[in-house]
Amino acid sequence: MIKVALAGLFGRKLRTALTAFAIVLGVAMVSGTLVLTGSIDNAFNSIFTSVRQGSDAVITGKAAVKVSDGQGSFAPTVPESLLDQVRGLSSVTQAEGSVDGTATLIDRNGKAIVLGGAPNLGFSIASGDSPFNPLALVAGDWPQGGDVVIDRSTANRKHYKVGDSIGVQAEGAVEPFKISGIVKFGSAASLGGATLAGFDVPTAQRLFEKKGHYDEIAVAKKPGVPEEELLSQVRALLPPTAQVRTGDAQAQEDQKQTDSFISFLRDFLLAFGGIALFVGSFVIANSLSITIAQRTRELATMRTLGASRRQVLTSIVVEALVMGVLASVIGLFLGLGLAKLLFKLFDAVGFTLPNSGIIFPASTVVIALFAGIVVTLLASLRPAVRATRVPPIAAVREGATLPVSRFARYRTIGSALLTVLGFAVLLWGLFGPHLGTKQVLLYMGLGAICVFFGVALLSVRVIQPLAGVLGWPAVRIGGVAGNLARDNARRNPQRTASTAAALMIGLALVTLVAVLAAGITSSFRGAVEGIWQDADYAITAQNNFSPIPPSAADAVAKNPDVEAVGNVRTGNAAAYGKSFFATAVNPQASSMFNLDWTVGSAQTIAALGDSGAFVDKDYAKSHKLAEGSPLPLTFANGVRKQFVLKGIFDPPTGGSPFGRVTISQAAWDANNPNPQNLYSFVRMKGGQTDANRAELERTLSGFPNSKVATRQEFVDNQISGLNSVLNVLYVLLALSVIVSLFGIVNTLVLTVFERTREIGMLRAIGMTRRQVRRMIRHESVITALIGGFLGIVLGIVLGGLLVARVDFIVFTVPVGSLIVFAIMTVVVGILAAIFPARRAARLNVLEALQYE
Predict the structure, then answer these.
(1) Three-state SS for 90?
(2) pTM: predicted TM-score of the whole model, two decimal places
């Protein structure tokens, strides 16, 4: 039976190839994701290992709250005097102090060199030949006072060489520096979009406003000294705000943030690979069902010759297994190319990732092959079981069909119950109490799968009326060919439903994303419109979301044409045992925000003083806070201070610029040595005018990493990041649509085989080749429209449920996007019909009439 199965499989090469293509794409996505994230992980590991080379121990500040890069809060520094004490230890052979911060390079045109969300790294270099230095000179010399070394990638991209002048903006206004050298970092081929700027230690301390302090001290021990002895001696010198780790432990600590990012990216991309495989399972099941129906007499002949049901089942499973193995192997290696494309895709949307070369670990091979083969086998089970029901007598019957399963009469009620169960599980995941993030995602995933299966099975009952309605334009445009196409779509509702189901899933997910995006955009726009009260311009970072030094806003405030500048500081703090995003405002901000106060008023912002705070409504409710309640805040430097609640506001649906707790700018600056602004809002004499904008931009010319925006520009800039994410999502979801497209192609090709004699009869009675092509094309478009209609409706429903769960999003139907999706559905139908239509039109009439 194995030989028979293989002979049958390779005897139908076209059908096999079209069916296997769905698995090829899904496995390629899984393989490409694992290769991509493995390569990124390897690059980051190389970077952090290189940073800690030569370090047996590393002394750093100890933050009292959880701080993250780019959020405005930093771990405490250590005093410069500690370095001499460490060098005096009997276990230490060498030690160096260093500082770091954000140093944005400014090109010849006065523009900040910023690539998406990549960091602009600035740091000190105590000695170029130091064992702690991970950099290698490509050209030039190490920096002295007034010099800077920059990375090779930036130098090549912006055409800089040794001796050129380049601007640097750190905590203050931009300063010119001479490029003394070009450097590369360790073995990493690429640092993503990050830029590097290295200075001598005094220059770096001045730029980052850390005179007399270091961010860390790297320590090398004497030969033969036990690691624990070194750590013990160092600990005895440390203040309470400092800590010491081994070099390896510090490298692992540095990598924690990137590990969580890589884990998220891996899960995120694997989800789309899973979606492609899920859609592919529908294509495989449908294709095998059609081929088994077409091979009824073949299978019956095998039964007549003595084949048992088990042997027939085995032959079909072997076909699926071989097809799954071949498709998975092809998809596995196709994933290598896909990984490179994903690197370029992220680069194109401004999200350049580190890269030290593509790696292809054994785990990727095992996981990708396992996923593809298992999905193929599972998809083949139902068609294989159906094949065992072919009776031997069917071998001598003309037009014999597969017998109906004894469970067929329960199909409708079973499909309805499965759909209801899916929605119930989905609702529990969204609204169930006390569920963790993993539990929510698990319930949502299981619920969505049940819903998709249930709707796909239940759609059989609506195929005929839907085909009648959606096929009406085909009848009007295509005449007889369109009429036949509509009848063909209605002839076998099961087949049409299965074919449309693959496209339905892809369109449902695309629509879901569009609904969420429209809701977020609409909510955010409404929130800004409601909160932005009396400001003419906003000042943000060039990339729209990074914190910026207060010196930019301070320079603007000194301009005589400026009436007021309202700052929103940002950073991390902790209260009641949890770290969170906190903010701070200055008194001038009180006139610029229109908040819905449940306790307090607009003047609350101006009256915060040294110990006042206000919170959002949900935070007050969850911690049972009222006006006058004490609020103990802990800052990153370990200072714990008691604040008094003076206000509670109800944020709009789209959110607000404030964190869970907001205090005064003065109180924040007293406990955060390097405060950062998230936004600054400016009111000018005369309001918004071209002259005022030009004056504001002139004032900010010394701070190229900052930019000016009107309210509309501010909204558009903030939403632009969402649009980049959406573009990535749409590209990834397009993979499932492509899989469904091949599903339609496969079904049409198989139905052309099945209707060979019928097409021959139509040609014999006068149908032209053009009419045959038109018939197949209209049938494809009708099938695609059915899948598109079901997918869009289901996507709107699922999107509505998610929006109902998320407080900061309002439900918005993206009419324009839905029109585009509908048009794209027609395009998919037309594209899917090209090959089958040409094949049908080329059939020889006499041979078709004789076809068995």
Answers:
(1) coil
(2) 0.79
